[in-house]
Design a protein that fits this description.
With about 220 residues, the chain is mostly beta strands. The chain has helices at about 65-80, 185-190, and strands spanning about 5-10, 15, 40-50, 55-65, 95-100, 130, 130-135, 150-155, 165-175, 195-205, 210-215.
Length: about 220
């Protein structure tokens, strides 16, 4: 049996949460372009005024998001409940494959409906599958599936169900927003689109197995 593996890693994610429209010249922080890993920072301004409202001093500081905070963001997106099972709501926990778009077609305005495939990848007319979600357990716990700030989604389309000569041009991560959160025909049937990425055009055979791994990384450079 031929097994084809695809890994998708979002390793260039960078964001600055700003409380100010303009950053003072005196402010300093590590630019994303100079970081070895994804950068996620917060920014705060401290303004000291007298009784008349005159500004006596103003300081802008940039803080690193701590491991606990990274874990909160990851769990808010890919979420697990208190006993470690994936929540069925707006959690991005479904991996889909499609032949509808290529990497060049995917943009910020791409939506779930754009990814509806012309041919399903399996005999059950489904092009999506629930992923196994590995992420940090309760923040501060000694038992970790991954590092804080990191989520890894895995899914396998078994060779017994794969449609012969199905073509794959892109992979998507979708949530389960729709009321019937068991519908996995395509991304739109499941819910909304979280992320999509083009892959090399791949034609799979009836006996092939398709393993998909999606990695979402918001770890800051200093841990």
């Amino acid at each position: 049996m031929l097994t084809r593996r695809y890994g998708i890693a979002l390793t260039g994610f960078a964001a600055v949460f700003a409380l100010l429209a303009i950053t003072p010249a005196s402010a300093s922080f590590l630019p994303a372009s100079q970081a070895d890993t994804p950068v996620l920072f917060g920014m705060a301004e401290l303004v000291h005024k007298n009784v008349d409202g005159e500004v006596l001093s103003s300081h802008t500081v940039h803080n690193q998001l701590v491991d606990y905070g990274e874990s909160i963001l990851i769990k808010g997106t890919f979420g697990v409940d208190s006993v470690g099972t994936t929540s069925n709501f707006e959690r991005s926990m479904v991996l889909c494959v499609t032949d509808a778009l290529t990497g060049a077609d995917i943009s910020d305005t791409t939506i779930a409906g754009d990814l509806t495939p012309t041919t399903a990848v399996d005999d059950g007319d489904q092009s999506c599958i629930d992923a196994t979600v590995l992420l940090n357990s309760e923040p501060g716990s000694a038992v970790l599936n991954t590092e804080p700030g990191l989520a890894v989604l895995n899914a396998t389309f078994d060779g017994d169900d794969v449609v012969d000569d199905a073509v794959i041009t892109a992979i998507a991560v979708c949530n389960t927003l729709n009321e019937d959160f068991n519908d996995r025909d395509d991304c739109q049937a499941s819910g909304g689109l979280f992320s999509a990425v083009g892959v090399v055009n791949t034609t799979i055979g009836a006996d092939d197995t398709l393993d998909i791994t999606y990695t979402f990384d918001i770890r800051s450079p200093i841990n």
